[in-house]
């Protein structure tokens, strides 16, 4: 039976060594806690690192670790001390983590760490390949394994690979500073589906893929190699029932209270208006811990009536303590807590209760259920599950969530009180609002958030991800069936050889030659001349170059050649030994009127230019930033469409060009005119562009139509690039033509 393979650096269980004995506890962090429920449900294997370096283990402890891992449906990727240093602390947590969270001043770029990152990603790939069977679904997680999808796809191209990034994907302006940006993007693009927590991260990724790899994107799909990769956002949920039920259970009077709970109760019962404010996070500089403490200090100063009444309960879980920035943060936090407690404490009250340790689940529930306000103030956070967990435990629909707008969770939790973590004034006022919020309002806000959290739980999140991943399989299957593989090519060649009369339509730019920034640079090369000459010389074969270009350019390039040519999408025709003749009766009196409009677009969009043909005006935007180009082209189309009504003009969108033409001239009409000239029994058309679609649609069902590139098409088949076009045409020229048939 096929299974799901979950791969992340951190396994859901954290293993520590104590006197040759192993000590197992659940891992902290959003990824491990969230995916745990997904893993427990279905048939799945979780591959990751145990948390221990190989050098720390002897034969006996290794075996124990191994057993523990297998017992939990996991498999291990062993890491050496050196790898833990360079891959985990080094590249993952000194480069990617700070960079992706916009902490550029903390980001280091060390080549040695990068080399090790690649090696360890390969090591993960080896373990995955050892376990992966046909039909398995592979789900790779997070920033430690950005290259892994690429490595797996290389070896097992038919497996379905999903990737989910649990942290933000930064804006292009930040990502472009990263020295290995192309490699990392390509690694991620080994997946069939790439998921992010929010649409912002998704659009940042798409923008980087477009700008750095110059890939074509179609809404949220990227064409890459011979695949279409889907990019989407899936805001991760929590195991709502687990937290809700744990909180219900917590109310059971018969259960013995934990020490922490007893102390929390003491504070709460000390007077009627005593309140607790909670914060829980890994001790990480992205979590805005110093800001939060300082804002709390400001609050106590600004609203002294709250002194001796409210307490901040702050749980910071130790994390990545080998990285210097985390050590500095620990020191800063200790000092701040010390200073503020020193400044405000009385005999019976300390403003901040600070725990620096990992607590068991039951204690987390004590904290969540006892605190009146949760104050979650990250300066940058992919999602933040703690915010969701707090809301889920509020079984009486009371409590207030104060949440940083920099957390991915803020996008969905509109009923929280949203704050900017750098605005102390705003935080102080919001805290006051939270502490004074009427119960009715608390209820309205909490219940709306709970409804959503219950509906979009972590199971639902995983289910939606899998559904999207499965649908990429269907797209892949359609593409596979359309791809011009060897078998299909052989069949087409057979039809070609045995036909009595052949008609071949060839688009020019993007089909016979690659795209150039300047259209004049796309002149034919020697190889192309030879190819066309040979094809043209085939008996009973009519070859037509059909292009949007103007006739002057083609006259320059092919004036002394006998080829049949159609230019300007079907306005002009030239055949052997004759001059250009008009295929369509078209007008050009509209051109001086519309040209100034295009000129305003050129002025406002640097890098674009106008091409004036005999009967059309084209606005080219190949050299422009893709996002600006997209924006402007939508704008131009809107303007043009409102102007051309009743003028017998049409607006065509080609590959990075918008063209206004007289009448409904198009390649489909032109091709149909050629078709009726003879009794063709083999018709072939190839093109890369939207304007070629007219041809694909208008030619008879029996025609062999081929699209260059992976865009949506009505063509029957596709090839990937101009090189493949030439290879295919070369096969035509080498085909054995059965002339006997034509003479009979
Ligand atoms: P991050 O992923 O950056 O650590 P999140 O808030 O998304 O931040 O996730 C933190 C997760 O770690 C939550 O699911 C929370 O319940 C869990 N967690 C936090 N503290 C502890 C702890 N002391 N023991 C166990 N789990 C914890
Ligand atoms: C965040 C990351 C996870 C990571 C977790 C804990 O949630 O997205 O990938 O596992 O923090 O960090 P650690 O370095 O201890 O694995």
TrEMBL record:
Which reaction is the catalytic activity of this chain? D-glucose 6-phosphate + UDP-alpha-D-glucose = alpha,alpha-trehalose 6-phosphate + UDP + H(+)
Highest taxon in the source lineage: Bacteria
Q: Does the keyword Hydrolase apply?
A: no
Q: Which UniProt keywords apply?
A: Glycosyltransferase, Transferase
EC category? transferase
Pathway in which the depicted protein is active: Glycan biosynthesis; trehalose biosynthesis
Stored Gene3D superfamilies: Glycogen Phosphorylase B (3.40.50.2000), HAD superfamily/HAD-like (3.40.50.1000), Trehalose-6-phosphate phosphatase related protein, domain 2 (3.30.70.1020)
What InterPro entries has UniProt attached to this entry? Glyco_trans_20, HAD-like_sf, HAD-SF_hydro_IIB, HAD_sf, Trehalose_OtsA, Trehalose_PPase
State whether keyword rRNA-binding applies.
no
Q: Which Pfam families match?
A: Glyco_transf_20, Trehalose_PPase
The protein's Enzyme Commission number: 2.4.1.15
**Family assignment from sequence similarity:** In the C-terminal section; belongs to the trehalose phosphatase family. Belongs to the glycosyltransferase 20 family.
| Quaternary organization | Homotetramer.
NCBIfam families hit by this protein: HAD-SF-IIB (TIGR01484), PRK14501.1 (NF011071), T6PP (TIGR00685), trehalose_OtsA (TIGR02400)
Q: Could you tell me which PANTHER family the record lists for this protein?
A: BCDNA.GH08860 (PTHR10788:SF106), TREHALOSE-6-PHOSPHATE SYNTHASE (PTHR10788)
Q: Give the protein name, as stated in the record.
A: Alpha,alpha-trehalose-phosphate synthase
